[in-house]
Fold this sequence. Notes:
Oligomer: single chain
Helix content: 40-55%
Structural class: alpha+beta
Largest sheet: 7 strands, mixed
Order of helices and strands: EEEEEEHEHHEEEHHHHHHHH
Radius of gyration: 25 Å
Number of helices: 11
Strand order of the largest sheet: 3-2-1-6-5-4-10
Number of strands: 10
Amino acid sequence: MLQRVDFDERSAAFSHRSPDGYANPTKIQESKGAISFRLLGPLEIRAGDRVATLAGDRQRTLLAVLLIAGGRVLPVEQLYGELWGETPPPTVGNSLQAHVYRLRRTLQQLGDPGTGPQLVTRPSGYVLDLNGATVDTGAFLRSIARARAHMHDDPVLAHALFEDALAGWQGDPLQDVVQGPMCRSVALQLKEEYLTALEDRLSLGIDIADPVRIIGELKRMSVAHPWRERITELLMLALYRAGRQAEALETYNSARRRLVDELGIEPSVQLRQRLREILNQVPGMRGHPAAHGSRMPGTDSDQLVVPPPGMMRAKPA
Length: 317
């Protein structure tokens, strides 16, 4: 079982709370084991069976930017901007050295002597040598890439890989880090990767499973992300395959009204094409019955949904 511990940058020890609620100091030497870093959510360091967090905003920011750099040397001037923004203190050089010293000491205490991540000083700046430690962002992006490679030849495997990758998401990336330009841009990139992967998983779920099970999640996402038209398109498709063509058309009409009223634009070509396919009941829109077998409530188990003729038609854009 993982134990959560907090590292106070003013001390050389981890501490964790015992079951009775009192803090018990525990030397970091007791926390040996494989080291990994989490950026997808709050910044964490996992050492063996313990989850460690850094105290101090700038300690977390310094570690985050070094991890994001991926083994590249970061110039001290860039670190000044990431940690202090446009108003660094007059003693910024000494302050940075102090933060580097504290973080280096923390990393050294995470593993056995000579092992674990190493914060290395270079003539032009600093670099973090992971030395076998892992970062969750790397595993996340690799899993997504592997899933996309199998979307056409093995959609079931791709769906499972997307689920595995998305399961590691613990919230907005770097959410407890004071984000300078570098952290902010990477956090936005990771959020976009997450949403696109989630859309891909839902698209596969419509094809290989019962689309009815996907509708609720798509409706929730359409409220949280009203401008992502792919979510609207997937919701229309899921509703149509579930025999709810009228709701599919109303989903389009609602999205179009929102785009026109609030942004002054028409829906995308892809979304308008999906509308035409639903109105014309294009044969391929029904999907593969053997894959999902969507059924109307109250029908026999082998009766597939077929939209009734004369279903209401929306006014194309």
